[in-house]
Amino acid sequence: MSTETRTRLGILGGTGGMGSLFARIYTAAGWEVSVRGRTGHEPFSAFLARQDVVMVSVPIDATLGVIAAVAPHLRPDQLLCDLTSLKAGPVEAMRRSAAPCVGLHPIFGPGLTSIAGQTVAVTPATATPEQYGPLLAVLEAAGARLAVTTPEHHDELMAVVQGLAHALSLVLAGTVRELGADLDELLAFTSPVYRIEFGLVGRLLAQDPALYGPILRRNPNVPAVLGAARTALEELADAVDDPGPGSFVRLFEEDAALFASHGAAATAETDRLIRCLAEPER
Known about the structure:
The chain is α/β, with parallel strands linked by helices. It contains 12 helices and 7 strands.
């Protein structure tokens, strides 16, 4: 398929948040975009047949089923891709199609007005750079940063980046619940930096558990990450219980050495967030 003809994009799940965002991005780039939700007036096979690129943008638990339904209808001159936040399973399923495939994971939410500066993970599979190049060129032109890796390594990274981060937010919420603490009273005694931490927890819990459950439950790397978190919490508990400061200092310094190269940037970035919370709205 030549780059001149790859202009027709069909998004399955295009009525959802992420699908709608990508529909806007590719429409703005001059592509002919068609979207399809759970149902459509046009026969499914006809919808697929007229596309140059088919993009699957559905929840994690539905992704493999949708890919299995799509794959038999596609041709070698088409391109198949998905937007799922896990990659090994979907990419393996897409490999069964005659169409070359590539996995994508937008590492941001659908509420953005622009993807400039945002990261899209790319996990090449059976498609060549020439075949998926035009698809990625649109994202780069919109300002996205592309991070290329294998599907398996992507899922290992996401077990920490997403899985651990979400788990720690749930642990914070669960600890407050176990303590029977009054959340409003706690928030009344917070500084901006702690409001950020509690804000991340509140943001997560204000959303659908069906979004976050599969990120934790379907990634086979998450149990090992949670096991490491359990060990780290036990180490911290031991250091806190130690009557002398030595254990805590050693633990703190080991972790500080790990994050040393990130400290200055992290401080500057969070300082900006703190100022936004500390300064009164105008």
